[in-house]
Amino acid sequence: MANIPNWIKKRIVMGDCWEWSGSILPNGYGRIDRGKKYDTKLAHRLVYEALVGELDGSLVIDHICGNRLCVNPKHLEQVSQKENVYRAKTSIGYKNGHKTHCKNGHEFIESNTYVRKDRKNRRECKICRRNATLRFVYE
Fold first, then answer.
1. Residue 22: CB partners within 8 Å, gap ≥ 6?
2. Among candidates 12, 97, 82, which has minimal Cα distance to 51?
3. Separation CA 93–CA 85 (nearest Å)
4. For the segment 97-136, what is each residue's pLDDT rounded down to a tens digit?
5. Using the 8-state DSSP alphabet, how is residue 70 labeled?
């Protein structure tokens, strides 16, 4: 932690997760104000840069531990925004991506699953698609 200024170190509570005890944004992330108006940095990003290295501008930091206040670089990973959302257990993407059956109870297996390319790879049940088409044609 030699690369981190002392005033930042004082705001980190060490444990398995290094919890930020300084200023916190309404969304639950730690914040560092650098003294100038509109010069706010996210604590986990600043600590990651200091201890791991430069951040890729096209990637975001995922808290593997799920704790938004954690600044432990071992708990942080650079990933795409899509991957970050998919990993978040509270996101719709995570919930839908981990479903094993469609809303009518048909199992999502390769032979019964259609992946829509026009809708961000959304999965659909082939049985339900076929039934919907038949209802449309014959009703």
1. 8, 11, 30, 31, 32, 43
2. 12
3. 7
4. 888 999 999 999 999 999 888 766 788 999 999 999 988 8
5. B
